[in-house]
Amino acid sequence: MLTIDLARRLRTAGLTWTPSAGDRFVLPVAGMEEEVFVISDLTVDVHHFKTGDVIGFNGTTEWALDSVEQDKAVWLPREDQLRHLLGDAFVTLEQLDGGYAVSLRLADGSLERHADIEAERAYARALLATLSQDARD
Asked: C-alpha angle with apex 90: 84 to 94, nearest 5 degrees?
C-alpha cells in the first residue's frame, strides 16, 4: 500500500481524485494516520454539495452522521488505478530481488524505470515522475 507521504506527493504533483466505490483513503490527523477507509455505497460515500464534496460515514456506529471534506482526505490509489493513470506510457512491471520496477516509455522513445519495495509504490513513483515531467513541459 502507498505511504501517506507518497500519496501526498502525487496530489501535490497534480493528481486529482474523483472519489468512487472501492477507493481507499486516510485522514492525516493525529492518531488516525494508520486507519485506511474504503468508500462504499454501504458505509462511506461521497455527498456532493454546492460548497464542495464531503465524504460521509453513514454506516458505522462510531462515525454515524460524521463527514469530512474531501480535500482533508488523502487518496491512496490502488495498483490498477495507478497503472490506468500511466496510460500508454506504461511498458512493464517486473519483479526484482526485494521489490518491483515499472518501466515507462517517454515521449522521446526512451525507457525510464522506477523501483520500490512494493509494486503499488513503484507505479506511484512512475506516475509521480510523469506528473512532474508534465508540469515542466
From this structure: 110
CA distance 92 to 105: 10
CATH, domain 79-136, list 3.30.1490, 3.40.50, 2.60.120, 3.30.160: 3.30.160
C-alpha to C-alpha distance for 80 and 45, rounded to whole angstroms: 21
CA angle 50, 53, 57 (to 5 degrees): 130
> Can you give the residue ranges of every domain in the chain?
18-76, 79-136
Q: What is the pLDDT of residues 30-84, one digit of tens each?
A: 888 889 988 876 667 788 899 999 887 766 555 554 778 899 999 999 999 999 9
> Taking a C-beta distance cutoff of 8 angstroms, is the pair 125, 117 a contact?
no
CB 9 within 8 A of CB 132: no
